[in-house]
Design brief:
This protein is an alpha/beta fold and about 290 residues long. The chain is built from 10 helices and 12 strands. The chain has a single domain, classed as NAD(P)-binding Rossmann-like Domain (Rossmann fold). α1 crosses α7 and α4 packs parallel to α5.
């Protein structure tokens, strides 16, 4: 039996892991913890819990993700995104478990218009991205068995994300303005969750075969916020009109990278996985949502 601890519950990725955890050929016991139940920013509490409840893997979905608010709420953003991952890496080394940590495309500045590989320079444009990059660096500094997975534009039917906010807005607004020139790859949380379970399964089978480090995962293809919103509007026949606007019109809060398409070749080749196109995954997500509504 493999013991897995997932932090960041009830966030959308933790919930996606819950809904996909019955992976074939993987006999596991998964525990999901919220910040109230287990605060990864309190080292002593975390260490005591892990000593009493030994694990083989820890998937860290806990993060401060409010990008605009992070600019002013810097202490909390730094604690959760930068300091706590270092605690996890330290304990992973001490207590001999494997850490899987979720990071972001926002560690890049978005100025290089080509798919971004794991070894490209990281120069975040906002404080959220700076803290996420610092968290990566804290983990790598401990030289432990850790897999950092950067992803982009994560959405699902659960929690507060771009899709759920769009659907909520469409019920109250006649016109919704979306950037047409901010480009990345929308990523369905359940797709990422399935990949995380597959990585755990493969590492568990051959612990010396897969090199720890940074990996990129997002759905295939490139889209703007406008493209994504337009597809949702068409699928649900939403009455709200989606209006294309330049990205520069939305720069009132924290800066965002204008281009953050992640190159997925490393994770595809290393773990022999197939990555769905974002339109295919969005359709699966919306089918699930339609079924849920009905």
């Amino acid at each position: 039996m493999i013991n897995v601890l997932i932090t960041g519950n009830p966030g959308q990725l933790a919930q996606a892991l819950y809904h996909t955890q019955h992976t074939p050929h993987l006999d596991l016991s998964a525990i999901y913890k919220s910040r109230q139940e287990l605060d990864i920013a309190h080292f002593k509490q975390l260490r005591t819990y892990l000593e009493k409840n030994p694990i083989h893997y820890l998937v860290n979905c806990a993060a401060y993700t409010q990008v605009d608010l992070a600019e002013t709420d810097q202490a909390n953003a730094k604690t959760i995104n930068a300091i706590a991952p270092g605690y996890l890496a330290s304990l992973a080394k001490e207590l001999n478990f494997t850490l899987l940590h979720i990071s972001t495309d926002y560690v890049f500045d978005g100025l290089l218009v080509k798919p971004l590989t794991e070894d490209m320079p990281t120069t975040p444009t906002n404080y959220y991205g700076q803290t996420k990059l610092a968290g990566e660096q804290q983990i790598l500094a401990h030289h432990t068995s850790a897999y950092i997975i950067r992803t982009s534009w994560l959405y699902s039917t659960m929690g507060n994300n771009f899709l759920t906010r769009l659907l909520n807005r469409s019920s109250t607004e006649e016109h919704i303005h979306m950037a047409y020139d901010q480009l990345s790859s929308p990523t369905y949380a359940l797709d990422l969750a399935k990949v995380i379970w597959e990585i755990i399964r493969l590492i568990n089978q051959n612990p010396n075969l897969y090199e720890p480090g940074i990996y990129h995962y997002a759905n295939e293809g490139v889209a703007s916020r406008y493209d994504f919103a337009w597809q949702v509007r068409k699928r649900f026949n939403l009455t709200a009109e989606i209006i294309a606007q330049p990205f520069s019109n939305f720069l009132q809060g924290a800066k965002r990278p204008a281009y953050s398409v992640l190159n997925k070749e490393k994770i595809k080749q290393t773990f022999e996985i197939t990555v769905p196109h974002w339109q295919e995954s969005l359709e699966h997500c919306l089918q699930h949502l339609t079924h849920h509504i009905l």
